[in-house]
DNA sequence: CCATCCTTGCCTTCGC
């Protein structure tokens, strides 16, 4: 528990609690330097005065870090204060509270807004604890025993962030005159540094969850990691909700077993469920005593929207948003540096090109950053951002994290932010320093996104942020961990079971599941007994389970981790000039398969011509002219979050009541009024059901606002239930707002809607049957097979194609289904499909809401503004891009003619005029 | 002229 509070004592710079930190005012370097010098002088003068009065140095107060008690031999506190003062910062209350807690040996979770200075706060808190524990003091004044090899572990989710953090932690050490060593270990760490670390680890190590697991897999793990006293898990919100977070839970349990007094702190951005985040980090035995510190500093946050200048010409559908190009150019022009976030990689390529076309003078100042670009070019972009030499970067989520401490002035978000947490995260990329305001500007790409923009701002201001939950008992991660621990010195099952149950994810692991896992690493379970490769772990004469086979040990180490990604086709320059052999990045096999040599495509911000494809590599050269193809990647499809969807419905509610206070709503007003006139506005407590008859057949449009994944589940469910009573066939389409069913025959929608379509019934059974869940589970099994070590992805440099990998994972799936149906990995695949892909819980809730809702029936004579994007979505699957464009133009022409009333001439459908 | 689907990490081993 906290040490007794000291009575308030003299302060050199009194400061009311909770007040903002003083920043060195930005009025020129000379003035700033003077301000810093003055601050340092003030601290030093206070120290000198205190020393003169015969007071021991640690009591010298310039808002000292708590825990640094008089006589505790901690000049550290004063040094840290001085370091802060030199930057014109004063510590926040949360930073003091953190230092107090850490000094007292407590664990917990620190929630702080991005850019609040949490990194330094946690670092200094750890230093204070460390010093209090008798580790070496600042240079020259060694006390106590020499430092143990490794005392502080700092985990980050990204290599780039690890490198940044390593530097950030080192700098204050040097300035504070400490001789403690900070090291970084990740896949980026050079071989020489790696070798040095193998001889002796630094006192503080910044690393990734995967690299930590690798350290745990070494025979001498207990010696090298056994003395770790403090662990800081940075960006815990990023790890919490996935298997990487579970891997961290397991690693922490291991470290705590070696050192029961282990102090663990998570650093997290805003989450809707911070209590759970703490529980998952600390585990069932420690969660209750764990602290939850809220570092809610008054960070100024501004969310605004670029309103389309000509709303009459703003489109009804689509997500590219190129109509906003001139305005985006103007915004970039007006700021020193900007990040332009888009939602997909191909959109990033297109926007980068469009911006360069609009402003050729920005060549060299504009950059592109997404996950399929070569690591070197991404590193170049990140360095350019840090150095402030870039005007703007068009990027995907790849710049959500990492590259900390950027001098970014503006953040633009093109298209839907999809979630409140994401929006806040991106806003935090600007003004990334304590006390500086953050600003994000939303750029809607179509009319309904105007509503979403108003909703996103309202939800962010109300603090409705999404929750993230730890996975429950993933057996693939446990299996991997068992082999890791068997390698890392071996284990005795009883002791390891207790340790594993100390993790939140495995708190309820029963004996049967545990025995299954042991059996699986021991002999591959019932189905694989005949294969020696799956006899990975065996007890020795002493009853300690180890990995006897060196070859299997090596394989395992190379497969550690829970991220599974497809091997893409590598794109490289062909022959000739200087750039020959240079790597540009990766594209998907399916994209390259459609190209022939000589075809052009746009990639990595360049126009390229395909020369040849050979062994998973597409060789290219620079090209000019020609209409290029643009690669598409089949990434994950993030659905609109429940929080944001609820905010959209609330905004529509406002509109239905005639309130158009938000400027975005006012701008969308003509469209919303048209929707109300032709159909009705969806609103809270009501379910809008539109029907339309076209040449194609009978359409039904429903708007549950539950995100695209749930809508896909609902649409399949409805189609399946309807076809059960009469042999009808439906085609379906979904987006984040709603879903549509189309039937060639008349299914009598009114009867269908009244006949228990939304009943829960045997929901699970119906959903599984309607979606061909077996096939989904089979696909899901690929990742599970990789993580559990069934599938070996090959040695580095030896590229195996996705198809091969899928085939062998599929083989295991079949073998288990036929010969080992009790295999828990099969259950896991099903559970992951239901929970993650279908969001079954959200689907149930949506269905219940639809049952309870008042039905708004709207027979349409022509597609409504809400129905139109769904209609387009459905056609997209069958038509080529050009044909689709023709169709959309024709449809909008028709709509414009239909809507020949005054309300419509100023309404969005006249976007048709562009056609 | 239309355009959609994100991100994250990672090895070894030996003999000279």
TrEMBL record:
The segments labelled Disordered in the record are 1-27
Q: Which residues cross the membrane?
A: none
For the keyword Magnesium, the answer is: no
Q: What InterPro entries does this protein map onto?
A: ATP-dep_Helicase, DEAD/DEAH_box_helicase_dom, DEXH_lig_assoc, Helicase_ATP-bd, Helicase_C-like, Lhr-like, Lhr-like_DEAD/DEAH_assoc, Lhr_WH_dom
Q: Which UniProt keywords apply?
A: ATP-binding, DNA damage, DNA repair, DNA-binding, Helicase, Hydrolase, Isomerase, Nucleotide-binding
Give every Helicase C-terminal domain span: 324-478
The record's EC number reads 3.6.1.-
What's an example Gene Ontology biological process for this entry? DNA repair
Q: Which residue spans adopt a coiled-coil conformation according to this UniProt entry?
A: none
Q: Which Pfam families match?
A: DEAD, DEAD_assoc, Helicase_C, WHD_Lhr
Q: Name the domain of life this protein comes from.
A: Bacteria
Gene Ontology terms for molecular function = ATP binding; ATP hydrolysis activity; DNA binding; helicase activity
Instruction: Name the enzyme's class.
Output: hydrolase
- Stretches assigned to the Helicase ATP-binding domain: 99-273
Family of the protein in this entry = Belongs to the Lhr helicase family. Lhr-Core subfamily.
Query: Mind telling me what this protein is named?
Result: Probable ATP-dependent helicase
